[in-house]
Amino acid sequence: MLHNQSILNNPFLNKGTAFTKEERQKLGLTGTLPSQVQTLEQQTTQAYAQFQSKTTPLEKRIFLMTLFNENRTLFYRLMDDHLVEFMPIVYDPVVADSIEQYNELFLNPQNAAFVSVDAPDDIEDTLRNAAGGRDIRLVVVTDSEGILGMGDWGVNGVDIAIGKLMVYTAAAGIDPSQVLPVSIDAGTNNQKLLNDPLYLGNRHERVTGDRYYETIDKFVQAEQKLFPESLLHWEDFGRSNAQVILDKYKDKIATFNDDIQGTGMVVLAGILGALNISKENIKDQKILTFGAGTAGMGIANQIMDELMQEGLTEEEAKQHFYAVDKQGLLFEDTADLTPAQKPFTRKRSEFTNADELTNLEAIVKAVHPTIMIGTSTQPGAFTETIVKEMADHTERPIIFPLSNPTKLAEATAENLIKWTDGRALVATGIPAEDVDYNGVSYQIGQGNNALMYPGLGFGLIASTAKLLNKETLSAACHALGGIVDTSKPGAAVLPPVSKITEFSQKLAEVVAQSIVDQGLNKEPIQDVKKAVADMKWTPEYQDINND
Ligand SMILES: NC(=O)c1ccc[n+]([C@@H]2O[C@H](COP(=O)([O-])OP(=O)(O)OC[C@H]3O[C@@H](n4cnc5c(N)ncnc54)[C@H](O)[C@@H]3O)[C@@H](O)[C@H]2O)c1
Ligand SMILES: O=C(O)C[C@H](O)C(=O)O
Ligand SMILES: [Mn+2]
């Protein structure tokens, strides 16, 4: 039996002023609310007016988070109605501000689980307590070592897990009571946080090595034990751990790393969209990834798989890539290569001036890439000189400056369009306005994994997937084709966020079909479309059974 006040304080059950007279009677809420009974529509109108009265993006976010804390149904109903407006507020880029000010703004743990490296024996209880008896199907976990491109944010990074989950529900329709955001607090190397008396996380340096990996393993074991039907999504781990963790679990459980695989997917989908516009072939492209870290190498691997599916051998496919990191173009003998970088290195003998290829300008001059992707965290790195040099050697340069948040982008969409006289095919990490240039309105696709992971994850959950493999990833990358009208001048390389619910559903169906076709579903599924449709949650008030 639920205590009356606990219903009002439970965001998964609370309806606020929408509790009917009968419900108030039944649940012991009579007299605990003003007498008027409102509809969800009336509540939505009132809440949106309040939202609009807030002047800064952060104030808007704080208001929405308060609503989220109170009443998930109302929050998601409002988000459904104003999806394009709310995405940048609850998610990237404004989530970055809330992460930087997490301690100052803290009001509510938002049903997250806080796993501590200092209390390994509490991990199972931690997850159980945070789930509070809910049937968890989706876990987004971060250790916050690489939050967007902003580095280490300790426990503050929990907001990215919460934000990613909000997009899951808004875009794909995962039931918000079936999700669990998790912070793995392994300490932090962010000196500012360690010195901050208000910092809420473990006040010591990051734990690394065996103790770190034991914590991760304990977490995975407990997560699988408590929520055997769940999908595990990894977010914003550091460069040295992200791939290692993924490789350890990817063949055993339903899991993926969003920065590696989600980003790889959205970039390949964007490239396929761009090539649809330029009518070029992927086998004729030279791909430069600037910032050969977690995302950069995830992107390279996804494109590599596509080239191999197009019939190239591994050796042939590798010849299409130029990976660039701090050291410059990565060669076989470059110092400090990561395991993910090694397969994508070049030979010095390919270039007459190999030793000079230590900066992007020299590399672009030597390579003449047709595709340039930025995941470097280096703002403004795609300069006018570099972009013009690239555009001098290819008709439709494909340029995706993807570093987030806004202040870290390698270039703006507007500059890329201007510098190339409208020829560049552009996608940016954060939302970008249309660019009006020479009478054409250029629509800019959002090259953000948020376009892909909700549909991917939802499809995996709905199909009760045992694991995610290359076949399913590849099928998903091709699922967005045909949504954008590429014959229109200024067409975007990716479908707009305004259609995210539509294409997330399509993506989920393609993913679920691929799982079932490969026999990777745990439970029998007769009708894939129905399985996806049945799983979809919509923000409407349900009857509460209080027995
Ligand atoms: N749009 C998206 O969907 C999306 C997805 C994932 C990551 N990102 C963004 O990409 C960026 C990188 O994320 P990550 O997870 O790969 O981080 P990461 O730390 O794993 O990788 C960043 C890489 O950039 C390299 N780098 C740093 N300075 C450089 C320089 N001067 N020149 C060349 N390379 C340099 C680093 O050495 C590292 O290898 C972040 O800003 C992140 O927000 C965007
Ligand atoms: O969070 C985002 O906006 C995309 C991506 O996962 C990132 O780390 O930048
Ligand atoms: Mn990320």
TrEMBL record:
Family: Belongs to the malic enzymes family.
InterPro entries: Aminoacid_DH-like_N_sf (IPR046346), Malic_enzyme_CS (IPR015884), Malic_N_dom (IPR012301), Malic_N_dom_sf (IPR037062), Malic_NAD-bd (IPR012302), Malic_OxRdtase (IPR001891), Malolactic_enz (IPR048182), NAD(P)-bd_dom_sf (IPR036291)
EC number(s) recorded for this UniProt protein: 4.1.1.101
MF (Gene Ontology): malolactic enzyme activity
Cofactor(s) required for function per UniProt: Mn(2+)
Origin species: Holzapfeliella saturejae
Class in the EC hierarchy, top level: lyase
Lineage: Bacteria, Bacillati, Bacillota, Bacilli, Lactobacillales
CDD domains referenced in this protein's UniProt entry, alphabetically: NAD_bind_1_malic_enz (cd05312)
SUPFAM superfamilies with a match to the protein in the record: Aminoacid dehydrogenase-like, N-terminal domain, NAD(P)-binding Rossmann-fold domains
Malic enzyme N-terminal domain: residues covered: 68-250
NCBIfam families: malolactic (NF041582), PRK13529.1 (NF010052)
Alphabetical UniProt keywords: Lyase, Metal-binding, NAD
UniProt keyword Lyase present: yes
Coiled coil: none
Domain Malic enzyme NAD-binding: 260-516
The protein's name: Malolactic enzyme
Keyword Nucleus: no
